[in-house]
Structures are given as C-alpha cells and as structure tokens.
Amino acid sequence: MDTVRAANLKWLRNISGTLVQLFRLRTFDVIAQSDYPMDAGESLNRNPLELRAFIDGVPALAWSALPDGSPEFFNQPFLDHSGLSPDEVYAEWKSKLHRDDVEEFEKWWGELQKFRKPGQTEVRFRRADGEYRWFQISSTPVHDGQGRLIRWYGMNIDIDDRKRAEQQVRQKEEDLRTITDAIRQFIVVLAPDGTTLYANKIALENTGFRIRDLTDEGLLARAGLARPADAPGELAWNQVWEIAAHPDDRDRIRAERRDGFLRGAPFELEARLLFNNGQYRWQLFQYNPLKDEYGQIIRWYVTATDIEQRKQVEERIQNENLVLREQIDRDSMFEDIVGSSEPLRRVLTQVGKVAPSDSTVLILGETGTGKELIARAIHKRSKRAAHTFVGVNCGAIPASLIASELFGHEKGAFTGATQRRLGRFEAASGGTIFLDEVGDLPPDVQIALLRVLQEREIERIGCDKPIPVDVRVVAATHRDMEKLVSEGTFRQDLLYRLNVVPIEMPSLRERASDIPLLVEYFIARFGGNAGKKFRTIDIKTLKLLQDYEWPGNVRELQNVIERAVILSDSDAFAVEETWFKRERSEVLRPRVALSSVLLKQEKEMIEAALAESRGRVSGPAGAAAKLGLPTRTLDSKIKRLGIDKYRFKSI
Asked: Candidates 1.10.443.10, 3.40.50.300, 3.40.30.10, 1.10.1040.10; correct CATH number of 332-504?
C-alpha cells in the first residue's frame, strides 16, 4: 500500500509541476485568476489531496496522456465541460470535437507524437449543453532522466470569446473593403515609412498593379530596377511614381511628397498617372495622416480624384485667354496710344517711370480721355504683366452690391448668396486691379478699400477671417477729388493712399495736334472691320474735327468716326457738320439744365421727408423709409447735397 501511495503521490506531483509550468509559460491570466498562489508548490507537494484540488480548481481543462497518446487523466473542469463521467471520458472524449476539426486535430496530435515536441492547436469542443466553443489545446512531453518519453501533459483554454471578437473584426474589415472597393476613387493606405499596405480595387484595376506589385521587391522586378544600397523606407510608393507617373511630374512629386511627409500634416498634390490603357490622366492626390494618442503617425491615407476634365477646361480657358489677350493687343489701343503732342508725351513719360514699381496710381481726367488705356499700359509694362488685369467701374455697380463685387462673399452671407463667390481683388491676385470712377464708392466701401491699401488684406462678406491679397491698385476718376473731400463724401485718408502717383490725362482739346493721327488710326481700324477702304480724307471734315471742342474727348471722336465709316458709300472719308450742331444744341445744353432741376427737386424731397421724420433717417418712421430708399443711400445723398439733417430735429 505504501508503494502504491508513493507512486500516486509522485504522479500527482509531476502533473501539478508540469501544469504550473504550462500555466506560467502560456496562460498567465489563468493562473492569475486561480485561488492558488504561485508559491504554493511546497504545500501542494506535501498533500496529494491538495494537489488534486489544485488541478481540479484551475479554470482550464487539464489532462494527461501516455507516451502512445492514449488518455490517462482528465481534471474535474474537463468532466464538467464535456458532461462525461470519469468512466465515459476515456472512450468518448473525442466525440466532443467538432466534426470539421477532427481530421486537423488527428494530424496535429500525430505530428506531436512523431517529433515529441510541445505544440498548440485550436479546435471546437462541445459543451454538456450542446454548444460548441473554441479551445486552445497546449501539450508538453515529459521525459525521465534517461530522456525517455514517459507522459504527455496538456490543458485546453477557452478562447471562444476571442475567436468571436476576431471574427467580428474580420467581418468589419471585409465590409470596409467592400465599401472602399465600391468607391470610384483611388484609396491607398501607407505605413509611416511610406510602404503600401492596401490599395482598393479601382486603384489596382485602373493602374494595372497588383497588391504584391506594391512591395519593394514587386516594384523593383516590374520596373527592372536594382535595389539601392541605401534604399529609403518609403521605397515602394516612390517606385510607384517612377513607374506610373508622367516623367515631367516625377521630380516635382518627389519633392512635394518629401516636404509633406516631413511636415506630418495633410497635404495634396496634382500629377498625371499612367492608366493600364496607356493613357495619362490628371489626378488630385490628398494625403491625410492618422496619429496615435502620442501624436505619432501610424498610417497615411491617400485618395486620388480624377481631375482630367477640370484640367482640360482650365487649359482651354487658358488658351482662350491667351488668344483674347492677343486680340485685345491687336484690336484695341492697349499700348497703342496714338499721338505725339507734348501733353501726351509727358503722360507717357510718367507711365514709363511709375510702371516698374508697385506704387498706387491715381489717374485724373475728363471722361473719354483714355484713363483705362493708361492703366493697362502701366500693367503691361510692370512686373505683373503676366498676371491678370481686372477692371471695375465703381460707378456702374449698385451701392448695395459694390462690396460683394470687390471683396466677395461667403455662402449664406445675405439673401441670394447661394454659394461662395470670390471678389475682384482675389481674381486679380498677382496682377493689377483698376478702380474706375473711384470717387463714386460708398463710405463703407471706402473704409474697406483703405484697409486693403494699408494692410494688404480683405474680408469677404460673411467671413471674419482676413485674406491676404497681392494686388496693385490703379484708380481713376473724372471728378474733383478735393471737392468731394471738402463735401464729406470721400475720405481724405483714402485719397492720400490713392494719390501716391497722380497722372493727369490731357483732354482732346489740349492735344488737338493729335487729331489727324487719331482720325487715320480709327479710319483704318473701323474700315478694316467693315471691309471698307478709304483713299482720302475730306479736307473740310479734317478741319471740322480739329475745330470741334470734343466734350466727350477721344471716346466721342472714336464714336463719330465709327458712325461715319458705317454710313459712308464712297472711298473718301467725310463727316456731316450737322452731327456736331445737333449734339451741342440738343444734348449738351438740356443735359446741364435738366441736371440742375433734378438735383433741386431731389433736395426738396429729402428735406421734406427729414422735416416729417424730425431729422431721423433710419427706422420705420425715418426719412429713408418714407422715400423708399436704403438708409446708406439716403445718408450718401444727404452728404452730397449738403443737407444739415440735424436742423430738422427741432421742427
């Protein structure tokens, strides 16, 4: 009896020691959950009942087998899980394996016995209630002092929750892959070093790449390139550009990507990519980093949007603009300002001096003297000539719209603002903006323009974020600016900013000696357009043109000659004298008289409304509401007409 008891005690000690070793090496969490401390070995070794209690108490299915693989021992959790009795378990435990796992288990168990090494596998094991759960089986061989196999010890740990979680992750990954493959846009995922981890279906199909091509080795093999000795970490995606990008874009792309990766912030670039049909198409690549909780980049997500059509439209517009500019140069007096009189030569000398600078220019002169032509000549001879020249007639735009026209607006900034709109200042970025009739600007726009000249930045309507602008300002007016300042309708500080370099345009009366040259120029221009050729100019017509005062200046002369060319039936150019008499008697004189009458009536109506509203301009009972005018417009008219609105408060 003592010999048998000693043998059982030795067996229990062996299995407990092996299980403790297995728990320590493979299932630290299981031991941590056990009620038995890790240092309880001596106590357990002294008491066989405690050893058996320890083996039955661990939250795992423990077992042992003889060297030939036949079962020898199963602990109580194994019996409880399987629902088998101690007598049934030896013969029927395999029946608890899922039928799809039996073959794989037999193969694994056979290899373990053949090589006599520790091993693991995963199988589904049926519980007593009929539910299958995943288990990880770990088995370790035990040898005696002579190296002979004497026993197999093992344990099965429930991993069903982990397997379910893994399955959910795989399903989510599969769903995400299905979604990204359905998107008609390139989607690529890069490791922090630039190595390609994933590319969606459309990216692979359109470029002809395969996932295995996007590794370093795959790209080198496809391109027939040798691996550099000091290959950077992002070799794979760089090689994509070497193979698929347009040769003219590669150096630029490489530099932009390098800068973008170093900054570690979202960036984008445009490039032509070679598709598997042999054609290059423009793509907009957008790079977005994913960072961990410590701010370290763990992924780069790249999307590519096809912008081929947009690029074609831009190229077509650019070509049309070039053609239009050439047409303007040919057909207009762009820099072809005709004349050789002394007043005109002085102006052109000033233009030649001021054009290379970025100084603000104010062009003064009567209507029709060619102020816009001078502004264009300044732009054409400046360092901004390759950029846009934008002209704005401030007097032709309603006061309520001029701010939006000049500075732009955001979507929803006011009723009717259905989308964001860039203003003329942003459209002229890098070039020149010409503000014609600048004296007609409303007071609030004058303040905004003053800020542009001082700070070189604008604010769109509906946006409080300043936008820097690089624009040269050239302004023009036919009005007496000093008088406008004294009347309070134009800001004196703004006039100082605009009047950095003033240029006074001479009237046509002051350059009468240029009239013969201008007549010849316009006859050739309009005659060519009408398909007519004039051999001579009537002497009386030329004298008539030189004697006329030309209140409309060059513009009026141009209109008269165009009319004469259209109506002429002979090869001798002539103008009827009656045209000038009718213009003087029927247009010029009534216009002045009518203007005075209208101004007087307008002043009387405004004063009557102010008297009725006791000097109040705004509000439901104010003068603006009574006259049906915007408050800002009425304020401007009050200042322009010199009305003292405060004297009506006591009425």
From this structure: 3.40.50.300
State the Cα–Cα distance between residues 285 and 305, nearest whole angstrom: 7
Closest by CA position to 371, among listed 387, 394, 404: 394
pLDDT digits (tens, 9 = 90+) for 497-546: 999 999 999 988 888 888 888 888 888 888 888 888 888 888 888 888 88
Whether residue 602 contacts residue 610, with contact meaning beta carbons closer than 8 Å, is answered with no
Q: Which CATH architecture has domain 183-311?
A: 2-Layer Sandwich (3.30)
Q: C-alpha angle with apex 613: 608 to 618, nearest 5 degrees?
A: 110
44-56: b or e for each residue (b if 16 or more CB lie within 10 Å)?
beeebebbbebbe
Note the Cα 102 to chain centre separation in Å: 58
The full set of domain ranges for the chain reads 2-163, 183-311, 332-504, 512-576, 587-648
Q: Residues of 534-560 as b/e, b for ≥16 C-beta within 10 angstroms?
A: beebeeebbebbeebebbbbbebbbeb
Beta strands in 200-246 (DSSP E): none
What's the CATH architecture for 2-163?
2-Layer Sandwich (3.30)
Contacts of 324 (CB under 8 A, 6+ apart): none
Distance CA(460)–CA(410), nearest Å, equals 7
User: In whole angstroms, what is the distance from residue 533 CA to residue 416 CA?
Assistant: 51
Long-range (24+ apart) CB contacts under 8 A made by 613-617 are 613/648, 614/648, 614/649, 614/651, 615/645, 615/646, 615/647, 615/648, 615/649, 615/651, 617/645
Q: Which fold has domain 512-576?
A: Helicase, Ruva Protein; domain 3 (1.10.8)
Distance (Å, rounded) from C-alpha 592 to C-alpha 599?
Answer: 11
Chain-centroid distance of CA 377 in Å reads 36
The reported pLDDT for the residue numbered 230 is: 44
Residue 544, SS3? helix
Token pair 């357009």 is at which residue?
529
Structure tokens given for 12: 């229990």
Alpha-carbon span 341 to 328, nearest angstrom: 25
Q: Two tokens at 161?
A: 């929750």
H or E segment to which residue 304 belongs: strand 297-306
In this structure, the chain runs to a length of: 651
317-363 residue pLDDT tens: 776 666 566 555 544 444 467 888 888 889 989 998 999 999 999 99
pLDDT in tens, 222-272: 445 444 444 444 444 455 556 678 888 888 888 888 888 888 899 998 988
- Is the alpha carbon torsion for 624, 630, 632, 636 positive or negative? negative
